[in-house]
Amino acid sequence: MNLTFTPAAISRVHALCQDLPGKLYLYYLTEGCGCENSGIFTLKLVTETTPEDIEFSSNLGPILIARWTAVFLEEQLKIDYDSKSNALILKSDGQFYNRNLLLMDTDNNYVYTPKNEQ
């Protein structure tokens, strides 16, 4: 799997993560969704990994993902930033996975939510 961040997304991610510890993780959030097959991808910062975590390549360096969630994604992915909606977007050539990709810190607090950004 390969993930490409657009220049606008790189700028936004760097601004959001500036002093926060951790490594980027493409996290499949299932809390409140009912079951493991019903969830949404988000970005999360992590300082520890588990045996189920694997790395894949991106133009920002290695990104972590849980092995079992990788099956939900296509081989080539992109994260873009839309300044009009102030949102990061996870997509492929074939579909959108999340048009409002949020960022969580290591304590599971949201660092980025478009509603609280200016």
UniProtKB/TrEMBL annotation:
The protein here is known as: Core domain-containing protein
| SUPFAM superfamilies tied to this protein | HesB-like domain
Q: Give the species.
A: Listeria rustica
Q: Where is the Core domain?
A: 1-103
The positions making up the signal sequence are: none
User: What InterPro entries does its record include?
Assistant: ATAP_core_dom (IPR000361), HesB-like_dom_sf (IPR035903)
- What taxonomic lineage is listed for the species of origin? Bacteria, Bacillati, Bacillota, Bacilli, Bacillales
